[in-house]
Protein backbone atom coordinates (compact mmCIF):
# COMPACT_ATOMS: atom_id res chain seq x y z
CA UNK A 1 0.00 0.00 0.00
CA UNK A 2 1.29 3.42 -0.93
CA UNK A 3 1.08 5.91 1.89
CA UNK A 4 0.75 9.69 1.40
CA UNK A 5 4.36 10.17 2.54
CA UNK A 6 5.53 7.72 -0.12
CA UNK A 7 3.59 9.64 -2.77
CA UNK A 8 5.18 12.92 -1.63
CA UNK A 9 8.59 11.26 -1.74
CA UNK A 10 8.00 9.98 -5.29
CA UNK A 11 6.71 13.38 -6.39
CA UNK A 12 9.72 15.11 -4.83
CA UNK A 13 12.13 12.71 -6.54
CA UNK A 14 10.39 13.30 -9.87
CA UNK A 15 10.63 17.07 -9.50
CA UNK A 16 14.29 16.95 -8.45
CA UNK A 17 15.09 14.72 -11.42
CA UNK A 18 13.01 16.72 -13.89
CA UNK A 19 14.07 20.27 -12.97
CA UNK A 20 17.79 20.11 -13.87
CA UNK A 21 16.94 18.47 -17.18
CA UNK A 22 14.22 20.87 -18.27
CA UNK A 23 15.16 24.26 -16.77
CA UNK A 24 18.22 24.83 -18.98
CA UNK A 25 16.07 24.39 -22.08
CA UNK A 26 13.47 26.82 -20.72
CA UNK A 27 16.11 29.49 -20.05
CA UNK A 28 17.99 29.05 -23.34
CA UNK A 29 14.94 28.62 -25.60
CA UNK A 30 14.67 32.29 -26.56
CA UNK A 31 18.38 33.12 -26.47
CA UNK A 32 20.77 33.20 -29.39
CA UNK A 33 23.95 31.47 -28.30
CA UNK A 34 27.36 32.33 -29.74
CA UNK A 35 28.73 29.82 -32.28
CA UNK A 36 31.61 28.82 -29.99
CA UNK A 37 29.17 27.75 -27.27
CA UNK A 38 27.06 25.82 -29.79
CA UNK A 39 30.21 24.02 -30.99
CA UNK A 40 31.14 23.18 -27.41
CA UNK A 41 27.63 21.91 -26.64
CA UNK A 42 27.77 19.60 -29.67
CA UNK A 43 30.51 17.56 -27.95
CA UNK A 44 28.59 16.94 -24.73
CA UNK A 45 26.59 13.87 -25.92
CA UNK A 46 29.80 12.24 -27.18
CA UNK A 47 31.54 12.95 -23.87
CA UNK A 48 28.70 11.54 -21.80
CA UNK A 49 28.43 8.41 -23.96
CA UNK A 50 32.19 7.90 -23.84
CA UNK A 51 32.22 8.23 -20.06
CA UNK A 52 29.42 5.69 -19.71
CA UNK A 53 31.04 3.22 -22.09
CA UNK A 54 34.58 3.52 -20.77
CA UNK A 55 33.57 2.92 -17.15
CA UNK A 56 32.01 -0.39 -18.19
CA UNK A 57 34.63 -1.38 -20.75
CA UNK A 58 37.48 -1.60 -18.24
CA UNK A 59 37.79 -3.44 -14.93
CA UNK A 60 40.08 -2.09 -12.23
CA UNK A 61 41.52 -5.04 -10.31
CA UNK A 62 43.79 -3.71 -7.61
CA UNK A 63 46.82 -2.13 -9.25
CA UNK A 64 46.04 -3.03 -12.88
CA UNK A 65 43.29 -2.49 -15.41
CA UNK A 66 41.84 -5.18 -17.66
CA UNK A 67 39.16 -5.29 -20.32
CA UNK A 68 35.69 -6.41 -19.43
CA UNK A 69 35.65 -8.99 -22.24
CA UNK A 70 31.87 -9.51 -22.57
CA UNK A 71 31.35 -5.75 -22.80
CA UNK A 72 34.19 -5.44 -25.32
CA UNK A 73 32.66 -8.23 -27.42
CA UNK A 74 29.38 -6.28 -27.62
CA UNK A 75 31.12 -2.91 -27.98
CA UNK A 76 33.05 -3.71 -31.17
CA UNK A 77 30.08 -4.63 -33.43
CA UNK A 78 28.04 -1.81 -31.91
CA UNK A 79 30.70 0.79 -32.75
CA UNK A 80 31.06 -0.61 -36.27
CA UNK A 81 27.29 -0.35 -36.81
CA UNK A 82 27.30 3.19 -35.37
CA UNK A 83 30.03 4.25 -37.79
CA UNK A 84 28.40 2.50 -40.74
CA UNK A 85 24.77 3.57 -40.24
CA UNK A 86 25.11 6.77 -38.17
CA UNK A 87 21.71 5.86 -36.75
CA UNK A 88 21.21 6.06 -32.99
CA UNK A 89 18.25 3.68 -32.93
CA UNK A 90 20.00 1.05 -35.05
CA UNK A 91 23.12 1.33 -32.90
CA UNK A 92 21.14 0.91 -29.69
CA UNK A 93 19.23 -2.07 -31.06
CA UNK A 94 22.43 -3.78 -32.23
CA UNK A 95 24.11 -3.09 -28.89
CA UNK A 96 21.21 -4.51 -26.91
CA UNK A 97 21.03 -7.60 -29.14
CA UNK A 98 24.79 -8.15 -28.89
CA UNK A 99 24.84 -7.82 -25.12
CA UNK A 100 21.75 -10.01 -24.69
CA UNK A 101 23.27 -12.70 -26.90
CA UNK A 102 26.57 -12.63 -25.02
CA UNK A 103 24.82 -12.82 -21.65
CA UNK A 104 22.59 -15.64 -22.89
CA UNK A 105 25.55 -17.67 -24.16
CA UNK A 106 27.87 -17.02 -21.22
UniProtKB/TrEMBL annotation:
KW Membrane (keyword) present: yes
Entries under Pfam families matching the protein: AzlD
Transmembrane segments: 40-58, 65-83, 89-105
Highest taxon of source: Bacteria
Assigned keywords, A-Z: Membrane, Transmembrane, Transmembrane helix
InterPro entries the UniProt entry points to: Brnchd-chn_aa_trnsp_AzlD
Protein name per its UniProtKB record: AzlD domain-containing protein
Amino acid sequence: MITPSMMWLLLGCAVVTWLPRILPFVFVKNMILPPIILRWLAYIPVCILSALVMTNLFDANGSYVTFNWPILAAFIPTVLIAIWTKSLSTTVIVGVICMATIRFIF
